[in-house]
Write a structure and sequence with these properties.
This protein is an alpha/beta fold. The chain has a single domain, classed as 3-Layer(aba) Sandwich (UDP-N-acetylmuramoyl-L-alanine:D-glutamate ligase), CATH 3.40.1190. The chain has ten helices and 13 strands. It has a nine-stranded mixed β-sheet, with helices on both faces. Strands 3-2-6-7 form a four-stranded mixed β-sheet. The protein is globular and about 50 Å long.
Length: 316
């Protein structure tokens, strides 16, 4: 039997913790790909810029929530080399007591090359993230306080499923956000992650993949969740609920894209902040779009600063 959960205003964020190695290729990937040779690709791109940043979807979203004045609980697994980043997040008000430190593995690594058209080729090394499955969210949450929502982001797949089940056991609302891990999830795992979610996040490509993985139509997915939030890049965001026409929220114009990595995480931070404050979904999405624009204009996933202009976009 599901327990009654004492709803608070805090957000718990579960997801990967990583170090990002971000490279810039001045050409176009497409010019190097031969249509009749795609089964034997062997390419090397000479990058003209390298930036090493702290990242991971869990840390990126927690960073954004901390920047807007919330006190999120970060839940994930990292190596002993994560101490400096954990201290930086704590300085922003992020509670890192939910971070498991591996005694033997390095923090996960994300290596991403971006071309001149903002296309990306990336590789992710899990490292300590594999130990996220050892975290007992059902024991952690009651000790950490009262939560409005648990965001379940891309992480070790077994950990994601386990965290979802913990939320159901406790009766705490959760947001399902499998994103890039959809490629590793089977039908049963994906359905378990989605069913009963208060919020479901995806981009347009992931929305199609999610339907394929679950075997559900869009209408069947909507019957399983509260609000389905689909980001569409420069085309904005679609908010969908069962039995209602979808709502479109336009993107915030960007003067110049410095780095596309992490814009989706910044959007989620803004949306989740609005949700924590009890805002309607469309207003939360406007704040998400404002933070995503700031992230796009910043080099690195945890470098943007919320501005008065960003808040003015959601003042009505």
């Amino acid at each position: 039997m599901t327990a009654a959960w004492d709803i608070g205003v805090r957000i718990a964020v579960t997801g990967s913790l990583a170090t990002d190695h971000l490279l810039t290729y001045p050409g176009r990937f497409a010019e190097q790909l031969l249509p009749d040779q795609l089964d034997r690709v062997s390419l090397s791109f000479l990058a003209d810029d390298l930036r090493v940043r702290q990242g991971g979807v869990g840390a990126n979203i927690a960073f954004g929530l901390g920047k807007v004045g919330l006190n999120p609980l970060l839940v994930g697994a990292a190596g002993q080399d994560y101490a400096e980043q954990a201290a930086r997040l704590r300085a922003l008000g992020v509670d890192t007591s939910g971070v498991h430190i591996s005694p033997t593995r390095h923090t996960a690594r994300f290596v991403c090359t971006t071309d001149r058209d903002q296309n990306q080729i990336a590789t992710f090394y899990a490292g300590a993230m594999a130990e996220a499955r050892t975290i007992d969210l059902a024991a952690l949450l009651p000790r950490a306080g009262r939560f409005r929502l648990v965001h379940i982001g891309a992480d070790d797949p077994e950990a994601m499923v386990r965290h979802t089940e913990a939320c159901r056991t406790l009766g705490v609302p959760f947001a399902a956000d499998p994103s890039q891990q959809l490629a590793r999830l089977d039908t049963e795992q994906t359905r378990r992650l989605v069913a009963g979610a208060a919020l479901l996040f995806s981009n347009a490509y992931e929305a199609a993949l999610l339907r394929e993985r679950t075997g559900w139509t869009e209408e069947e997915v909507l019957r399983q969740v509260g609000t389905w939030i689909t980001t569409r890049g420069a085309d904005g965001v679609t908010l969908a609920r069962a039995g209602r026409p979808p709502t479109h929220v336009p993107a915030v114009p960007v003067a110049e894209v410095a780095d596309p990595t992490g814009a989706g995480d910044a959007f989620r931070a803004g949306f989740l902040a609005g949700h924590a404050w009890g805002w309607p979904d469309d207003r939360s999405a406007r704040l998400g779009c404002a933070l995503a624009a700031l992230a796009l204009e910043s080099a690195g996933t945890q470098e943007y600063e919320p501005t008065a202009h960003a808040y003015s976009l959601v003042s009505t």
